[in-house]
Amino acid sequence: MTDSANSGNDSEWVCNLCEMSVKERTVRLQYQRTIFALALPACPKCGMVLISEELATGKMAEAEQALEDK
Amino acid sequence: MEQANPNETESLCPVCLKRIKATRLLRGDEVFLIKECGEHGVFETVIWRGEPSMVEWKRAKKPVHPELCYGPVDKGCPFDCGLCAAHEQMPCSVLLEVTDRCNLHCAFCFADSSSRKAEDPTLEKISWLLERAMAAAGSCNLQLSGGEPTLRNDLPEIVEIARRIGYCFIQLNTNGIRLAADKDYAKQLQGAGLSSVFLQFDGVDDEIYRTLRGRSLLDQKLQAIRNSGEVGLGVVLVPTLVKGVNIDAIGAIVRCALQLSPAVRGVHFQPVSYFGRHPELNGDAGRFTLPELMRCLEEQTEGLIKVKDFSPPGGEHEHCSCHASYVLSSEGKLRAIGAANNDGCCSVVPGSDGIKKTVENVSRRWKLLSPAPSFNLPQPSANKACCSGNNPDIKRAEGPLDLDDFLREVASRSFTLSAMAFQDADNLDLERLRGCCISVISSDGRLIPFCACNLTSRDGKNLYLTRNGSMAR
Q: What's residue B3's pLDDT?
């Protein structure tokens, strides 16, 4: 993905492979057996999903820790 | 015809406690431990019945050996426990018996406790024992046990001592009688740093208590849960499962526990083993194995709980336990979380990593984060109404969930089902024993795997522990 506008909330991410602007859609993220439904930017052509660093190291990491098996 | 599927291990002769070879043999859908003592003959005990099969119930671990050992490797397993350098797992939990006295005289008692006046260890002695255990086991959970630990008025001081030494998760194993009668005492324990209450809870019907514990106790159990929850102590229900007594109550126990969540954090089942004090061994007919329990849970909860929710353990040996984790939403939706059997990952978990996770997870899931809302107790002796907690009719939830909802509820509304299959002289498998991660702190300051510590021969001779405070070995 490339951030073409490169400026905070106004940024517009483009899929490098398809050269298409990403659009928000509902995607399913699975960790072990648990599936989360989230609205995330994704390429309308190839389906590549953009996960921000904030989400990956924040809520997703928190969920992973909570789901981690003993 | 017997299918040849030999799985060699070692065990003890249940009569003379001599170490002998043993074989795990699959016959139909049952697995038997078969062993022969030159002097006392052949012994055969069922150790696994049906699905999920023992073959698929796997979770490989790389052995990790204790660095600080209180005793040399000399006679070989299981005669050198301390732990010895040949042990293959670090403790996730150490258990201290703070008294031998008890205010019940149960038909089944792993510790063979009694009402007799035995001298309790002093606070100085307890402090020494806990420091020695911490030095050898490292940071792990602590179980305060007995006898009945709440017979000691200074139990809050013991909790404080353990906290000062560095134990972060301290659980109390109790029959609940004092917690029911004395809420201030529960509050003192919580204030001292107690994390969780493991409450002996065999069913939702007083007939079960009269059979196993000698008297009606259900009202006291429920009051103990209420008092504990109100002072901020999470409760894990611990049923001893005995065929012919309370196997049919398994589903009702789970439903009751769910109704009393979040004060009740889960249920930890213990199928009966034949050590300590117990009625005569009823052969294989009395054995209740882990897969049978998992199937019973699914059947008796009509699919609210499913066999597929359960995983083998990351800490102890795979044949010793099973567990399943859930989130119970405030709307009464129960959702299974965590790895299904074998779908977590395909790599071998180093033993120390498995223990670290076990210690962390037990602490997170069995603690109560804030005092639980009071629930309506049933009228005295209205035993069938046990499940009159605050939660709506509970239904199973499947499918995708919202990440924010999950994060909000998982911290405070997790619920765990687990079971531990303890070993006795008949079904002892030394491979399992070497992988044990629950150690009893003996009176002379060694760490003895729980099943070795309590193991008795068929005529009651102890492998390790004698009940006058001294060690047999």
A: 47
pLDDT, tens digit, 9 for 90 and up, residues B17-62: 999 999 999 999 999 999 999 999 999 999 999 999 999 999 988 9
pLDDT tens profile A16-32: 999 999 999 999 988 88
Please name the residue of chain A whose CA is at the shortest distance from the CA of residue B59: A70
Taking phi over 0 as left and psi of -120 to 50 as alpha, with beta for the rest, B214 belongs to left
Residue B389 within any structural domain of the chain: yes
Is there a contact between B339 and A59 if contact means CB atoms under 8 Å apart?
no
Instruction: Check residue B345 and give its pLDDT.
Output: 38
d(CA A34, CA B338): 7
Q: Nearest 5°: CA angle at B457, between B453 and B459?
A: 135
Give the residue from chain A lying closest to B344, CA to CA: A32
Residues of chain B contacting A, Cβ within 8 Å: 311, 313-315, 323, 325, 335-340, 343-344, 357-358, 361-362, 399-404, 406-407, 410-411, 414
Give residue B73's pLDDT.
92
Distance of CA B395 to the CA centre of its chain: 27
**Full residue range of the structural domain in which residue B361 is found:** 61-420
Residue type, B117: K
Residue whose structure tokens are 């049978």? B292
Query: Hey, are the CB atoms on B401 and A69 less than 8 Å from each other?
Result: no
Query: What's domain A2-67's architecture?
Result: Roll (3.10)
Count up the domains in chain B and report the number. 1
Q: How far apart are CA B56 and CA B61, in angstroms?
A: 15
Q: Tell me the three state secondary structure of residue B126.
A: helix
Q: What is the arithmetic mean of pLDDT over B66-79?
A: 93
Residue B1: is its pLDDT beyond 80?
no
Tell me the HSE value of B83 on the side-chain side, using a 13 A CA sphere: 30
Q: Does A39 touch chain B (CB under 8 A)?
A: no
Q: The domain spanning residue B343 has which CATH number?
A: 3.20.20.70
